[in-house]
Amino acid sequence: MRLISGKEDLKKIRRSIEHGTDEQREIVRTILKQVRKFGDQALYELTEKFDHVLLSKLKVSEKEIEQAYEQLDHKLIEIIKEAAENIRFYHEQQKRQSWFVTKEDGTILGQKITPLDAVGVYVPGGTAAYPSSVLMGVIPAKVAGVERIVLTSPPQEDGSLPAGVLVAANESGVKEIYKVGGAQAIGALAYGTETIGRVDKIVGPGNIFVALAKREVFGIVGIDMLAGPSEIVVLADESANPAYIASDLLSQAEHDARSSAVLVTTSNKIAEETIKELHKQLASLPRKEIAEASIRGYGAAYVANDMDEALDIVNELAPEHLEVMTEAPFELLSKIRHAGAIFLGENSSEPVGDYFAGTNHVLPTNGTARFSNPLNVDDFIKKSSIVSYSKNAMESNAKKIAAFARMEGLDAHAIAVEARLGEKK
């Protein structure tokens, strides 16, 4: 991890949105064409080609779900249930209601909230299991009132899905679970196949091929975001604990060699001690090689002259995760404008949000927190505008509306409202 102290140095660690290579984009387009043309047959063949698994069926059976409960430790099942309840509680607070207002002239205006009909939740897998991604994708959709939720995830070598993933899906109320991953899963969700019905929106993180596939099908279906490798910024003053900072930076660095872990501090001492502590902790980390590559390529300790400069840097980075380890973290909250998730105080370690607090861990990356949100209930609803004009309102406003329309050269618009007045022009 390098020490930096100027904005020019930030350019060396900032990542751009991943667009993939020409070769990767072409591979994804070819996969999507195959799925669109050949349906289930393409899913079986592509799963054998990329996952090296010969499936006999795509859909997870009730028996497989029962076996998952038998395989998973009872204590872990209870933890999944409690985490699910925490996530449900948090997202319940985000629910919107339809609303209507009436004006004095009798006009009724409003907004109708309607859940999406069908949503696809992609859960990464293959060599790893992510029950937390199941909970984060499914529960907000359930809270929003989505009737049909489809979950897809790449199979393990034996053709099964991890027990934790199946338990989390069942506890979340998912009825359709399919053993298919990669760009082919995105294609199936977007276009539909003989077995997998198409959905209206696809959410959930994945590798570069999943991200590129989501980009390709956007417009046919909605998507949540184009997420890149994980990132964390820790904002600290002289009161922070370097051991805590180091461990939290590494919690994201271990995700991916392209993950970003940055300390922004007003204290040279904290920066130097954190770097020492970080390398000390790295030595015994099971995923040392990945974390080391992340720290080497996208890790830094930025020493600011004062807290105002530190906050400017934080807002410029617009990180996916921001931890505030200062003496009075809540006092800084109003000055933080851009961050996917904000963790206040030394006990609010980022993994708390990943698994258990209830906030969503599907977050904007690569600086897109400047204009994007965490996955939330609003991602699973539509808003329709409601207009009911009274006769009085029409008589009062028709000429104004007609004048506006003619200003834009749209005479038929003008005639449509003037017809209500019995006028012709």
From TrEMBL:
It catalyses: L-histidinol + 2 NAD(+) + H2O = L-histidine + 2 NADH + 3 H(+). InterPro entries: Ald_DH/histidinol_DH, Histidinol_DH_CS, Histidinol_DH_monofunct, Hstdl_DH. Substrate binds at S230, Q252, H255, H321, D354, E408, H413. NAD(+) binds at Y122, Q184, N207. Residues 55-82 form a coiled coil. Its EC number is 1.1.1.23. The keyword Nucleus does not apply. Zn(2+) binds at Q252, H255, D354, H413. Its cofactor is Zn(2+). Belongs to the histidinol dehydrogenase family. HAMAP family: HisD. PANTHER family: HISTIDINE BIOSYNTHESIS TRIFUNCTIONAL PROTEIN, HISTIDINOL DEHYDROGENASE HDH. This is Histidinol dehydrogenase. It comes from Pueribacillus theae. The lineage of its organism: Bacteria, Bacillati, Bacillota, Bacilli, Bacillales. The gene is hisD.
